[in-house]
Amino acid sequence: MVPAGVADGIRARPRRGPLAGAESRPVRGRQAIGRTGRDPGTRSPADRPAQPGWAEPGGGAFSRIGCRRTARLGVDRPAARVAGPGNRPHRKFALRAGDRRGRRSLTATAPGSGNLEAQLDFLRDQLLHQVEPELLDPFRSEPGQRRQLRELIRELLAQWSPGAEFGAERIETLLAELIGLGPLDPLLSDPGISDILVNSPDEVWVERRGRLERVDTAFRGPEHLGALMEKIAALVGRTISLQTPCLDARMADGSRANLVIAPVGGPCLSIRRHRQELRPLYGAADSWAAGGGMSELMGRLFAMAMSARCNFLISGATGAGKSTFLASLLAHVPPNERLVVIEDTQELPIDPGAHAVRLQCVHDVRGASSGQRRVNLADLVVNALRMRPDRLVVGEIRTPREAYVTIEALNTGHPGSGSTIHADGAADALGRLEMLIRREYGGFSAADVRAPIARAFDFIVHVGRLENGRRIVREVIELAGMRGSEYDLRPAFAWTADAGFQPCGEYRTGPRVKAKFGSTSDVGA
Q: What is the rounded CA–CA span in Å between residue 406 and residue 10?
């Protein structure tokens, strides 16, 4: 029952969250579903109050599916559609309200069949009454979720428009819009796709097995794309608006999304798929060596170096395979050694049997006081030193402070650690580390910066991607320390188009790596 005095004029709070700025719908208690037999679409403007209340969007699963919330106390927005092409006038519709939960029958208004938007609006409203909110979670992993909703959608549509035929394609489209990411759902289910790039409503690209290609996926218009972006923001408890036109979001399945709207640009959307696969270095059909990403000799060197607790710096461009290669190295960490993994967003696949602790940056503290701030990667590196790590892994070095605290941490006795950095080559990676540190800490000379860097890493590995999409290890350099004021760099392996993967001349391990290996033999000889 609606409390006395509320039915005649419910005045809820204004819209908040990801739907802020969207057109608000006036509602009245007398227009509630199940409260009157009158079709709210027939009310004239004169019947409406001068200052109507506004429907408040709900939290939790209601905001997650990107739909308007219908109040449980009998308040709903009016169905304000009119007759038009492909949309018959409103007619009364009786809906069974889940007998197993003992709910009363509802009376709702339903527009005619044929209009996708009308069907979506209708289904959203009715599903909120019929199913538990958890069933509408887009990232719920239970296998029966889609089957249950698919059957319920068929039942609702059959009652809504008796005699009309709704094919499997339309059902899947409705299902994707309701609990998925709309037209992007088929792309997300393709295991060969690592990136989805939406440049505009009618231009969508994907990276499939290392190569970019345009696909025949399209949105119905800017509003359709914008609604999906609002849904993604709502899924992570964030908003995208004129005040925050750029947003990074990590979705529940681990995928990373970047959203951009006006005035910066767009609307455009980029999704980086989260891949949990662990790719062995060598010795398996899906290994780096078997796939042409390195030679078996290189794989054995890397495995030996990780067991000997050598430190690695992995360099490469975006999408080159830096994180994938680092994860392959970490598979050779003994299970009795404590591994602390620090990432901006959780990305590295870690063996479930590893003794690993994961730390992740906090980008937005909602409702925090002015004295609180985000927890960045540098903060986590400092904190990780208090967690008794045997090895430290820093997902990626991006900023001057991250570079400084990582080098400092690796100089405090944590052999067998690693990190990644964007660079054009193995030697360039060292130059970029220097540039980052000296940009923020200008009091250091080049020699002051180079000495701790030379002590921090044993091997610099540069990975890249060929034109055919294959990811390879292009270059391996041992950082043997300092030679005067310069790095003592010893090229170990290099890839060329003509010769493939080859040891570099008379490569001999330096004294530090030789001591870690516990042998006087030369790996590359």
A: 56
